[in-house]
Amino acid sequence: MSIIEDELETTFLMTGKINQEFSRYDKIYPFTTENLTDSYKDLKDKKVLTVAGSGDQVLNAYNEGASRVDVFDINRLTIYYLRLKKCAIEHLTYEEFKLFFSYKSKELYEKIRKYLGTETRQYWDYVYTHFILNPRQSLIYTYLFYPPVEWTKYKNRNNYMNVESYYKLQELLPSKTINFINTEVTDLHNKLKQKYDRIFLSNINQYLEVEGLEQVIHNLSNYLTEDGIIYFAYIYSYMEDTLTGNINHDDPIHIPSVMENNKQDTILSLKKASIN
What is the pTM of this model? Predict the structure, then answer.
């Protein structure tokens, strides 16, 4: 059985179960749950390594001027979604993009499917054939995805989702390739071939013990440029302090939380020079 056949079968067999830990095949977040508008800044001409997640991390990084963005994720299904989202931006108007990820999913998929690579097109053809029988059913409301929220919330979290930025990104993306590394974060350093100015690990810290996170930071520091920074953890202000708070870090970044509590999220980071 080929990789694509394995993934198609796995997708077909997936039920509504939500995994409690990241796995090789898992549900996908339709859009980011992070406030990327305030956290992905000052990336002009930077080389970036980021978790794939919903794909918004890549799109925001390029929107902010990154010269290269490589992505990693243990969940193989994220790369198919990222390629789909990138293709949608390249070939749909802003209003069509909005409709594609809310309504008229099948109709607009037919408009872009010929631009997808062979494996990605094969994957989504299968999804649309087996999971989306109503032409007006939204892709992101299938059980392949975590439950979506209101569109305005997505827009507020993503700097590429205002009209002007969207069309600038539309012009930029065709020249950008996606280098996807399918691995868990603890083995990521063994897959890297170059150094990065910025490494974003999102909230992966929640799935590692403090010793494991320290080892990940140490291993990845070898792939930071001299002025490089690794953003390695979120500490949420509405929770008790976590083990992550005991790790040495540079000045924390405080950004408005996407949670509806009017509090702030704290992102912990370390510069290359600060890592032993």
Answer: 0.91
